[in-house]
């Protein structure tokens, strides 16, 4: 922490502390209370639409690796909690009202196609596939996919400045140039499958 704090002071990055307030009327609480053994939400559940809207505006107060990311890094013995999966970066974001959301960065634009020289089983991670799955699940009336939205995330303010995880901070690069973007690098389990995110 000391090393990062010194580097943060030199590059004008501040570590922000936020207060979390539990709201029993929050849309995520209402959504969770509506889960049944047959579906995640009922057809008429108004909390789903409210939750989809709220996720796009909730304030991020903490960012950390997900349990499966920690298990893959050997940072925890999470084998009884979660099965490690995937090879793309996922972060767990804690919101101001105690909601927790999964964050997967957009790795390429929607219109980009997989290059011909990419190994068959290592296709691009399509961030919009999960968004489409949620909406298709609603149209087909299965109601088994949790709400998923696309959201712009300020990587500096909403991840770098709020995370308490040193390993996560270590993957950031902030250019000393004024008004520059922060970037971070992630590395997957299948070798160097990481990518640069801004």
TrEMBL record:
One of its GO terms (molecular function) is ATP binding. ATP binds at residue 104. Keywords: ATP-binding, Nucleotide-binding. InterPro entries: FAM20 (IPR024869). One of its GO terms (biological process) is enamel mineralization. GO terms for cellular component: Golgi apparatus. The keyword Nucleotide-binding applies. The keyword Lipid metabolism does not apply. This is Uncharacterized protein. The lineage of its organism: Eukaryota, Metazoa, Chordata, Craniata, Vertebrata.
């Amino acid at each position: 922490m000391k090393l990062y704090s010194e580097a943060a002071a030199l590059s004008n990055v501040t570590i922000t502390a936020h207060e979390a307030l539990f709201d029993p009327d929050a849309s995520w609480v209402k959504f969770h209370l509506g889960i049944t053994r047959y579906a995640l939400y009922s057809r008429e559940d108004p909390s789903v639409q409210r939750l989809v809207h709220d996720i796009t505006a909730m304030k991020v107060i903490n960012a950390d690796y997900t349990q499966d990311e920690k298990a893959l890094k050997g940072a925890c013995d999470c084998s009884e909690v979660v099965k490690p999966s995937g090879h793309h970066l996922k972060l767990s974001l804690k919101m101001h009202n105690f909601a927790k959301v999964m964050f997967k960065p957009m790795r390429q634009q929607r219109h980009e196609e997989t290059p011909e020289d990419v190994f068959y089983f290592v296709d691009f991670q399509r961030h919009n596939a999960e968004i489409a799955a949620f909406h298709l699940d609603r149209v087909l009336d299965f109601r088994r996919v949790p709400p998923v939205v696309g959201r712009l995330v300020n990587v500096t303010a909403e991840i770098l400045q709020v995370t308490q995880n040193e390993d996560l901070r270590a993957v950031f690069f902030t250019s000393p140039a004024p008004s520059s973007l922060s970037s971070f690098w992630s590395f997957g389990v299948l070798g160097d499958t990481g990518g640069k995110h801004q």
